[in-house]
Predict the structure of Glutathione-independent formaldehyde dehydrogenase.
Amino acid sequence: MSEGNRGVVYQGPGKVTVETIAFPELALGSRRCDHGVILKVLTTNICGSDQHMVRGRTTAPQGLVLGHEITGEVIECGRDVEFISKGDIVSVPFNIACGRCRNCKEGRTGICLNVNPSRPGAAYGYVDMGGWVGGQAEYVMVPYADFNLLRFPDRDRALEKIKDLTLLSDIFPTGFHGCVTAGVGPGSIVYIAGAGPVGLAAAASAKILGAACVIVGDMIAERLDQAKSFGCETVDLRQDADLGEMVAEIAGTPEVDAFVDCVGFEAHGCGHDHAHEQPATVLNSAMALTRAGGQIGIPGLYVTEDPGAEDKAAQTGSLSLRFGLGWAKSHSFHTGQCPVMRYNRQLMQAILFGRVEIAKAVNVQMISLDQAPQGYADFDGGAAKKFVIDPHGAIAA
């Protein structure tokens, strides 16, 4: 198959461009990839994790094709693909997983042992994640297709709900995972740190899981308004006020049952310190705010190398934590990539049967591939939107 292909390419700190890139092949280096498929990308999303790279806060190389949130139509199958067919519309988990290693067999697909020579775990178009070509493009290759891909059961229904279903590749399962690992359940009081797309997805997930009170904290008024739009309580962290006291005004107690960190390593201080980075501030707030015996889910990204960090220790991922407080309160902490396949089928059903309007919750805005650089700029400016790229204009049509 010989067609053109274009993709969003990282060109150095603060700059992305749309470039002509190679059309994908069913190959891994010099050998064939008969277990893979080639997708025509229907939707591909800009993620906050991409934004960390574009800001220059990682060691991402210039020329990296970005994008790990992919939904597409299968246009070619490798010889060994048995259960996925040409014409299927599928969601691609951002975790690349072999399905054969110990971790994959245990359902820990975010730390597959065979798809990245540098460390456990891989993703499309992401620094240190195995060198896989990203999916903010017109076409992309997906390996281990039978294991990785979630096929939508009805094409017409999938296209009707595509703005919701596109979020299954990452942020919806990631937000849900954050809540599950924080122990959210019926009657829980939950604090969500960060009202970006993952934080809003976590807030919507907490409601699915039966939380009684979902409190979202952020410093951007538009994002807090978005959280309020589907019934969340909010706290404005620009205020010079104690977080526990602000939570007590809402919930009647200065503690929460579950805390979900959807901010990660570029966290800023609160109140008068909001202009300055304090990368440990959310984790320390989590230990202060979560009740004794409570749980803390950490889907927010933390890195081993942050060349742009203000603090020298933080440049190597070393943070100043009050870990003794967490120990004293018998907290449980859960970190790492979401194993998307643990949740995506169930969340697909929740979407298809109208149990959740996740696109509305995170305020999806469709853009063209050529609008991607502006989408990155707007997202970096704090837009209360989830930018979804429509590379072929198929969804707009």
About this structure: The chain is about 25% helix and 20% strand. The domain at 6-170+339-390 is CATH 3.90.180.10 (Quinone Oxidoreductase; Chain A, domain 1). Residues 197-208 form the longest helix (12 residues).
